[in-house]
Design a protein that fits this description.
This protein has about 525 residues and is an alpha+beta fold. Helix 8 runs antiparallel to helix 9 and helix 15 packs parallel to helix 21.
Length: about 525
C-alpha cells in the first residue's frame, strides 16, 4: 500500500456538520472526528485508559477532550495526554474541495514497540500497574518478544538499586521461565501476566528512587582480586574488575565460580547471596549477553553490602565448625538426627558426617522441609513478640530456596560444599524455636504430585497478593520445590511437597500495627 492509498475519503459527513462530531468506522478502527471552528481532529474513539467512547466526552474551548468516565484529558492540538497516562492515537486529516480525507496508515511496528517500552518506564514513578499491562499488550501486539520487555526494564533500572539486587531481579528468572512454558502452550495472554509481574516488581523496588551510578573505571580482571574487593566492601574496585572481565570477553558463566565463592564466603544476607547468584545466572541464560551488565553490577553490589550474620552471637560457631571440616567425619546422618537442634548442635552434627556431603545435603533438605511443614504461625500472628522473634512464613521459605541454589552452585564449584552445608545447618538451627513439633500435618501431604504442580502454577497467575515480595516468594519456593522434588523420593519428596502445600494455603500477615507500636514504644523506653 503506498501513501496515497492510506488516505480514505469520508463520504458522509452530515453528523459532523450537524453535531461537530461523528464516529467513522473503517478496517476495524473506530475513529472519532471532532470539528472545532475550522479545524477537524481525528482520534481513536476508544479511550486508551479503559476503552470507553470518547464520542461521549466533553470538549473544552481550548480543544481539550475529556473522557467523562475517569476524567482523563487529551489535547487535540498537541496530541498530549493532559490528565492520565496512556497516549491517545491521532490521525492526520485533510480537507479539500474533494471532501474530507483521513490517513489510516499504521504507525510502524518498531515505533509502537519503542513507545510502549518508553511508556512502561513512564508508568513507574506512580506505579500505574494497569498501564504497565496495557503497554505490554501493545508491545506484544506490535511484534515484541516478552523477554525483550523484561530486558529493557532491567537495563533502564539496574542502577536504581542502592544496595544491589533484590527480589524483583531474582524472581524474574522463575517468572520468565514459566512465561515461556505458557507461550509454548499457546497461552499468550497468561504469559503476559508473568512479564507484568516481573516489570511491576521492578517498578515497586525502584519507585521514585534516583540512579545510583556504577563506576565507569575498568581494571584488569583477576578472580581473586574481585573476591577480595567484595570481601572488603570496595564497590568501585569490584565493579571496575567486573567491567574488566567483560571487556576481556569473559561470559557471565565465566564469572559464576568467583561470584558463588563470594556468596558463600560467609553466612550472610539470610541466604539471599547464594539465591541471588543462582537466579542471576538463570536470568542471564534466558536474556542473553545484553543483560549481563544489568545483572552482574547489582549482584556484585548486593554481595558487598549483604549483612554478615556469621558475626552475630547466634551464628559465631559457623566459622569454628568450618575450620574443623576435614572430610573425615563418617557418621551416617538422617533428617531425624537434625530436627529440633540448635544452631551450635546442628553445626556440630553436620561436621560429624563431613565425609558424606551428599547424604548431609539430603538430610538437611528434608529437615528444612519438615521445619516449614511445622512452622508455628503464632509467631507471625502475635502482637507481643520480642523483635528477635518477628518470624514469618517468608523466613521459613529461605531454607528450601537456599538448598536449591547451593546444590546447583556446588555442582559447579564442588569445594564449596562444606560452606553450603554448614549454612544449611544454620537455617535448621535458627528455625528450632519457631516450630510446633506435635501439630497434625497429615492433611497437607500431596497425593497427586503432577496435578498439584499444575494447580499451583496456574494459581500463581492470579495470586492476589498486593506486595510483589510475597508473590516472589510464592514463585521462588514453588519453582525450587518442583525442581528438587524431581530429584527426590520417599519421605524427603513427600515432606517438601507438604511444606509447600501448607505455605501456599496459609494466610500471610504482613502488616503488624499493634506489634510495631508496642515494640517501638518499649524500645524507646529502654533508650533512657
Amino acid at each position: 500500500m503506498n501513501i496515497a492509498e492510506n488516505w480514505v475519503k469520508i463520504e458522509n459527513t452530515t453528523a459532523l456538520k450537524d453535531k461537530d462530531r461523528m464516529v467513522f468506522r473503517q478496517e476495524g478502527k473506530q475513529i472519532l472526528l471532532i470539528r472545532k471552528g475550522t479545524q477537524i481532529f481525528a482520534v481513536n474513539n476508544r479511550c486508551p485508559h479503559e476503552g470507553y467512547p470518547l464520542s461521549e466526552g466533553s470538549l473544552s474551548q481550548d480543544c481539550s477532550l475529556t473522557c467523562n468516565w475517569h476524567n482523563w484529558k487529551f489535547d487535540l492540538k498537541s496530541g498530549d495526554t493532559l490528565v492520565g497516562g496512556d497516549r491517545l492515537r491521532h490521525y492526520p486529516v485533510r480537507q479539500g474541495e474533494d471532501g474530507l480525507w483521513i490517513d489510516l496508515q499504521d504507525i510502524p511496528a518498531s515505533q509502537v514497540r519503542q513507545q510502549a517500552l518508553d511508556n512502561i518506564q513512564a508508568s513507574f514513578d506512580r506505579y500505574e500497574y494497569d498501564r504497565m499491562g496495557r503497554e505490554l499488550a501493545r508491545f506484544r501486539r506490535a511484534g515484541g518478544a516478552y523477554k525483550e520487555a523484561v530486558l529493557d526494564s532491567l537495563l533502564r533500572n539496574h542502577d536504581r538499586l542502592e544496595y544491589g539486587m533484590g527480589h524483583a531481579f531474582a524472581a524474574a528468572a522463575d517468572w520468565l521461565a514459566y512465561g515461556q512454558e505458557l507461550e509454548q502452550q499457546g497461552k499468550d495472554e497468561d504469559a503476559l501476566a508473568t512479564v507484568l509481574e516481573i516489570i511491576s516488581h521492578v517498578a515497586w523496588d525502584c519507585q521514585r528512587t534516583p540512579s545510583c551510578p556504577y563506576t565507569q573505571n575498568v581494571l584488569p580482571y583477576a578472580p581473586e582480586a574481585l573476591r577480595a574487593a567484595i570481601e572488603v566492601e570496595d564497590e568501585n574496585r569490584a565493579i571496575a574488575l567486573t567491567r574488566g572481565a567483560l571487556k576481556e570477553g569473559l561470559t557471565f558463566g565465566d564469572l559464576m565460580p568467583v561470584l558463588a565463592r563470594a556468596a558463600l564466603d560467609h553466612y550472610k544476607g539470610f541466604g539471599h547471596a547464594a539465591i541471588y547468584t543462582y537466579k542471576a545466572g538463570q536470568l542471564a541464560d534466558l536474556l542473553g549477553e545484553k543483560a549481563w551488565e544489568a545483572l552482574l553490577f547489582p549482584l556484585v553490589r548486593y554481595l558487598i553490602y549483604a549483612n554478615r550474620e556469621d558475626l552475630i552471637p547466634e551464628f559465631r560457631a559457623y566459622n569454628k565448625r568450618l575450620a574443623l571440616w576435614d572430610g573425615t567425619g563418617d557418621q551416617p546422618i538422617f533428617a531425624d538426627d537434625l530436627k529440633g537442634l540448635s544452631v551450635s548442635r546442628s553445626l556440630a552434627r553436620v561436621v560429624q558426617s563431613s565425609a558424606r556431603p551428599e547424604e548431609v545435603f539430603l538430610a538437611l533438605q528434608e529437615a528444612l522441609a519438615w521445619n516449614m511443614l511445622h512452622f508455628d504461625v503464632q509467631f507471625e500472628q502475635a502482637a507481643d513478640n520480642a523483635v528477635a522473634d518477628n518470624v514469618n512464613w517468608l523466613d521459613f521459605t529461605h531454607g528450601l530456596t537456599f538448598a536449591n541454589a547451593v546444590r546447583v552452585l556446588c555442582e559447579q564449584v564442588p569445594d564449596l560444599w562444606p560452606r553450603a552445608l554448614l549454612q544449611m545447618a544454620c537455617f535448621n538451627g535458627r528455625n528450632r524455636s519457631y516450630i510446633a513439633r506435635n501439630m497434625d500435618v497429615k492433611d497437607w501431604y500431596v497425593a497427586d504430585r503432577d496435578k498439584f504442580f499444575v494447580e499451583t502454577f496456574t494459581n500463581l497467575l492470579d495470586h492476589g497478593q498486593p506486595e510483589p515480595i510475597i508473590s516472589a516468594h510464592l514463585m521462588k519456593l514453588s519453582t525450587a520445590v518442583r525442581t528438587e522434588v524431581e530429584r527426590a523420593s520417599g519421605m524427603r519428596r513427600d515432606v517438601m511437597l507438604a511444606g509447600l502445600n501448607r505455605f501456599l494455603h496459609s494466610p500471610i500477615k504482613r502488616k503488624h500495627l499493634l506489634r510495631t507500636a508496642r515494640q517501638a514504644y518499649r524500645f524507646v523506653a529502654r533508650e533512657g
